[in-house]
Amino acid sequence: MSNNTRIPFVDLITPHLELKEELGAIFEKALSSGRFIGGPVVEEFETEFAKYCGVKYCIGVASGTDALRFALIAAGIKKDDTVITVPNSFIATTEAISQTGALPEFIDINERTYNMDSEKLREYLETQCYIDNDTGRLISKRTGRDVTSIVPVHLYGQTADMEPILELAGKYNLVVIEDACQAHGAEYFFKKEDQWRKAGSMGLAAAFSFYPGKNLGACGEGGAVTTNDEEVARKVRMFRDHGQAKKYIHEMEGYNGRLDAIQAGILRVKLRHISQWNEDRRRNAYLYNELLGGIDGIITPYEPSWTKPVYHLYVIRTKNRDELQRYFSENHIATGLHYPIPLHLQKAYERLGYRKGDFPVSERVASEILSLPMYPGLRPEQQSHVAEKIKEFVLNSTLNVS
């Protein structure tokens, strides 16, 4: 493979060209029907995505951020509550929490999975909170606020360790809302139930994003809430449409957060392909593992026995991350950082009062992670080229040190 050949981080062109005829028919149908917002196409996608996730209800919304915000509000999260999540995520996770009027508090991540560490969650609940004798509510010692919810993030396409998280939530009467925005089709094995369950079917509700680069992506913005709870579903439907129970009948103030029909139609077409695309991503991940295994200083993703990840991202770690990323760029290989600054250290959250050192695993990981090219159509020769450049970089680094 030529050293001048560019390898993109994600390919958003090829799959759309392959589906061009089907996707074009969606646009033509919308033009001929005049149904651009809501309607049967949105309802059909909602039915099909609910079935795919193994839940009763899916409510299409305008974005993943809307999905998480609406799910939290529908679950009863309110102003001045505390919602537990992780600092290693995109800011939309905490934006959705803050925009309900609640306050995020963080639990550090597991160093191997990069998701919420259930043991650290247990420690937080047992040592950093107390039960109010008068109300029976769980109170954060840090803020004095009621702790009401947990938002585990299924990061990079791998589910969080949900069984212990749900057990702790049940013990302390906490609502669990999954952030599944990177985990379309990922699965988790429940030992007590002896069964696999899909992301989006484990908490009271879950949020999905259909941003174009996702495993299931629209050709624009889009999102969805999944749930088995009829009342949560009813409320989310109203929140997305100005609080309307029916036209011009407003039970509450809501939002303009609807999924448009063209995007829903595009998602219906793509939903038929996502299982194969996810298998292609897994195949690519396992080839990367084989190519990169044993390279000194390179840590490849860890896949626990209780997950079936869908590799939205393939994330390695190295102490020379910035230098390696520059080397990739010089060799026309695109990479990403997900995410370079943990949320507790972002300027947007200075008001929370966290300091460097509060979440050492997230901070260490943030300085070392590097996302390699990952998409269904990634070719083995492209992956081999990526691996060759990593080996070159490591060898050159070793020679320079010597």
CATH class descriptor name of the largest domain: Alpha Beta
Q: Give the DSSP E fraction (strand runs of 2 or more residues).
A: 15-25%
- Average pLDDT taken over every residue: 96
What is the string of helix and strand elements?
Answer: HHHEHEHEHEEEHEEEEEHEEHHEEHHEH
The coarse overall form would be globular
Number of helices: 13
Number of strands: 16
Helical content (DSSP H or I, runs of 4+): 25-40%
Low-pLDDT windows of residues? none
Number of domains: 2
Judging by the overall fold, what is the CATH architecture of the largest domain? Answer: 3-Layer(aba) Sandwich
Full CATH superfamily name of the largest domain: Type I PLP-dependent aspartate aminotransferase-like (Major domain)
Biggest β-sheet strands, sense, barrel: 7 strands, mixed
Tell me the strand order in the biggest sheet: 1-11-10-7-6-2-3
Structural class assignment: alpha/beta
According to CATH, the fold-level topology of the largest domain is Aspartate Aminotransferase, domain 2
Report how far the terminal alpha carbons are from each other: 30 Å
Short description:
The chain is an alpha/beta fold and 402 residues long. The chain is built from 13 helices and 16 strands.
Question: Can you lay out the helices and strands and say which pair or pack?
Answer:
Layout: H1 14-18, H2 20-33, H3 40-53, E1 57-61, H4 64-74, E2 82-85, H5 92-98, E3 103-106, H6 118-127, E4 129-131, E5 138-140, E6 147-150, H7 162-171, E7 175-179, E8 187-190, E9 195-198, E10 205-209, E11 223-227, H8 230-239, E12 244-246, E13 249-250, H9 261-271, H10 274-292, E14 307-308, E15 314-317, H11 321-330, H12 360-366, E16 369-372, H13 380-401
Parallel strand pairs: 2-3, 2-6, 6-7, 7-10
Antiparallel strand pairs: 1-11, 4-5, 8-9, 8-14, 10-11, 12-13, 15-16
